[in-house]
Amino acid sequence: xxxxxxxxxxxxxxxxxxxxxxxxxxxxxxxxxxxxxxxxxxxxxxxxxxxxxxxxxxxxxxxxxxxxxxxxxxxxxxxxxxxxxxxxxxxxxxxxxxxxxxxxxxxxxxxxxxxxxxxxxxxxxxxxxxxxxxxxxxxxxxxxxxxxxxxxxxxxxxxxxxxxxxxxxxxxxxxxxxxxxxxxxxxxxxxxxxxxxxxxxxxxxxxxxxxxxxxxxxxxxxxxxxxxxxxxxxxxxxxxxxxxxxxxxxxxxxxxxxxxxxxxxxx
Length: 267
Known about the structure:
It is a single chain. This protein has 267 residues and is an alpha+beta fold. It is 27% helix and 28% strand. The strands form 2 sheets. Strands 7, 8, 9, 10, 11, 12, 13, 14 and 15 form a 9-stranded mixed beta sheet that branches. Strand 8 (164-168) and strand 9 (174-177) form a beta hairpin. The chain is globular, with a radius of gyration of 19 Å.
């Protein structure tokens, strides 16, 4: 049962205005939130990032954090989610045709829930060559509804029989993958690309940074190729990389499993 603009609705009853700018222009942002033991995990951090992203886009808040917290709890209860996923989506709402936003927008706010989490199994990666991540854009620092570069990169990965793709920035350095932050253990030390290189400031990334004692520094594709281990992190998973462009990596799953245990992730 989704929660839309302040109301919990029956399945199939939610409707979005055809003029909604989230649909017509991708004018909005979202958060993917893990649900565990019937509660939304790190919800305060997700709401803080949502507010920061809304400020970047100039979308005024329609609901305060208390109302959004209640909305997430209502969806979890209605869907009877013990372990699963919430998606909190905010668009600028309906608007006239064209790019200029309405002077007084009425944002659309949707919370949807799904039981179950993605697998925590090791991943096969390739490096996307057909598109890149623009580290100079403010959109690289928020979870905007514009994910087409990631969609293209994921199609490229699937075409090569891989699970995900490394996204490079405009300088040809590593940013992240299509859905995860990336950590590399090189010469015994963990490192991850800085936000300034195009990495999203992930919620799980912050946890992994602290727990691994990782350094934030630019990484090249060659750095990844000589890494002893690679990890991918997002709000829902911590996964080791088993292969990079067909080359098997010697380690990583033990570290991934240890972090999952620390943070209460299954698998």
